[in-house]
Recover the amino acids of this structure.
Protein backbone atom coordinates (compact mmCIF):
# COMPACT_ATOMS: atom_id res chain seq x y z
CA UNK A 1 0.00 0.00 0.00
CA UNK A 2 1.43 3.38 -0.98
CA UNK A 3 1.53 6.34 1.37
CA UNK A 4 -1.22 7.99 -0.66
CA UNK A 5 -3.42 4.92 -0.27
CA UNK A 6 -2.70 4.86 3.47
CA UNK A 7 -3.70 8.51 3.81
CA UNK A 8 -6.92 7.97 1.87
CA UNK A 9 -7.69 4.90 3.96
CA UNK A 10 -7.10 6.87 7.16
CA UNK A 11 -9.27 9.76 5.96
CA UNK A 12 -12.05 7.34 5.02
CA UNK A 13 -11.83 5.69 8.42
CA UNK A 14 -11.95 9.02 10.26
CA UNK A 15 -14.90 10.33 8.23
CA UNK A 16 -16.96 7.22 8.99
CA UNK A 17 -16.13 7.04 12.70
CA UNK A 18 -19.12 7.21 14.97
CA UNK A 19 -17.34 6.36 18.22
CA UNK A 20 -17.11 9.68 20.03
CA UNK A 21 -14.52 8.33 22.49
CA UNK A 22 -12.09 7.56 19.66
CA UNK A 23 -12.75 10.96 18.07
CA UNK A 24 -12.09 12.68 21.41
CA UNK A 25 -8.80 10.80 21.73
CA UNK A 26 -7.80 11.89 18.23
CA UNK A 27 -8.56 15.52 19.08
CA UNK A 28 -6.24 15.20 22.09
CA UNK A 29 -3.39 14.14 19.77
CA UNK A 30 -3.24 17.69 18.46
CA UNK A 31 -2.18 18.98 21.87
CA UNK A 32 0.51 16.38 22.59
CA UNK A 33 4.19 16.59 21.83
CA UNK A 34 5.68 14.07 19.40
CA UNK A 35 7.07 12.09 22.35
CA UNK A 36 3.54 11.51 23.66
CA UNK A 37 1.99 10.48 20.33
CA UNK A 38 1.70 6.85 19.22
CA UNK A 39 4.71 5.77 17.13
CA UNK A 40 2.58 5.13 14.03
CA UNK A 41 1.26 8.71 14.02
CA UNK A 42 4.74 10.17 14.51
CA UNK A 43 5.98 8.06 11.58
CA UNK A 44 3.11 9.27 9.41
CA UNK A 45 3.87 12.89 10.30
CA UNK A 46 7.58 12.43 9.53
CA UNK A 47 6.80 10.77 6.19
CA UNK A 48 4.47 13.63 5.26
CA UNK A 49 7.10 16.20 6.24
CA UNK A 50 9.75 14.45 4.12
CA UNK A 51 7.67 14.56 0.93
CA UNK A 52 9.01 17.02 -1.65
CA UNK A 53 6.72 19.99 -2.29
CA UNK A 54 6.09 18.94 -5.89
CA UNK A 55 4.59 15.66 -4.67
CA UNK A 56 2.23 17.28 -2.18
CA UNK A 57 -1.48 17.31 -2.97
CA UNK A 58 -3.10 20.65 -2.32
CA UNK A 59 -6.70 20.28 -1.18
CA UNK A 60 -9.22 22.13 0.89
CA UNK A 61 -11.32 19.29 2.23
CA UNK A 62 -11.26 15.53 2.72
CA UNK A 63 -14.07 15.21 0.16
CA UNK A 64 -11.98 16.99 -2.48
CA UNK A 65 -8.96 14.84 -1.60
CA UNK A 66 -10.96 11.63 -1.96
CA UNK A 67 -12.18 12.70 -5.41
CA UNK A 68 -8.53 12.72 -6.56
CA UNK A 69 -8.07 8.95 -6.11
Amino acid sequence: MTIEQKKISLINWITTLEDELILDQMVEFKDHSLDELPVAIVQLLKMAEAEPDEKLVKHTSAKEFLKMK
